[in-house]
Target: Mitochondrial transcription termination factor, mTERF
Amino acid sequence: MVVLLYRGASLFARRFHNQSSHFFNGFNRLHNANATTSQSFKLYPLSSPTYLVNPSLFYNTAFPSVGILDEKIEILDDIDKPKDSADVLRKWGCSEDDISKIFMRRPSLHKMDIKILQGKLEILTDLGITSSDLVKIIHCRPRFLNCRINLWLNERLEYFRALFGSKEVLLKAIVRNPSLLTYDFHNKIKPVIAIYEKLGVSRRDLIPMLLSRPTLIPRTMLDSEKLDYISRTEVSKESRMYKHVVTLFAISRIETIREKVMNLEKYGFSEEEVFRLFGRSPLVLTLSVDKVQRNMTYVLGTMKLPANMVLPNPFLLFFNLEAILKPRFLLAGKIEDMGLVPQIKGPAMLRALRMSEKRFITAFITCHPEDVVNELITFYKNAKCVKRLAESSKKNLSKGFPF
Model:
């Protein structure tokens, strides 16, 4: 603010000096030609009192010269000019903790050109992105500030505002997936959105998919085989599951889909039954082959439920084996051995498995006398503490995108 005031004063001084120089030169000539020895120029407007005007008063030293103002501007410019990228982030609004997290995730930002960084931060400010948002963005996309986010910026933002419907939703989408500002606009973003619209996924349904699955745009790939799989799920375009079915098949590798279909076929399901299961519960496609095998083995081998029970009850594949399925099934056997009621058998077993933890304990444990409650709760807690064999030595082999 101080710099702006000095710049305004300097500009005024320059204009005042240039415009008044000719006037005062003529005024001084008139003054020197005066035959009298008076140092003042006398004005007698009508009958008003006499006024004496001294030309030197127009050059009052109280008003700083142009040179002095320019020197002060240069000094203040040097004071306000950021010294490095950390100073730029600090002036933008980042705290020391934010700056530390950003540099820890992307150390090369220390050497980034200050003017380039300032320009990119100005773009983020116009989008409504705050310092806390920037920390989240750098955490998931460390190279974000090194990308050319200014390419097709106006056209891109105009397109996204029309797609998301509001600036708030657009901001949420960018924070969730910063690469929306870096993807190839004409060759990637627009063609992918057009593919989903052509398949009958409305923009209203596509927005939550873009928010929940940030990799939707770069990983979308549809061919004739995938389109055949989508049709075999028998899900209509009016169904609420349709957008999930289309997007999950589109972003999944064709080899992964085949592998998961074959895995379920091993338990006696036909291909048609598997695809109808995908249509009824699309998120089954996101489960790993190992998890499906472990849950199916326990459901068929230990719980003695028929395989077709999974088709109307896909939660049997989703629930955690060590935390829910196994402890509750073992507790059902304990209650039966003790001859207590209510017992967990038949349809009650499926209902008990779907219950929340609090409701399950209330319905089948704390409803008994205190001594029985203590025994059951101890047994239940011990059953939940049993870990998978060799779990601590399990190696997590990352295969990239999970499905």
Q: What stands out?
A: The two ends are 55 Å apart (CA to CA). The chain has 21 helices and two strands. Residues 2-6, 19-53, 55-63, 398-403 have pLDDT under 50 and may be disordered. The longest helix spans residues 2-32.
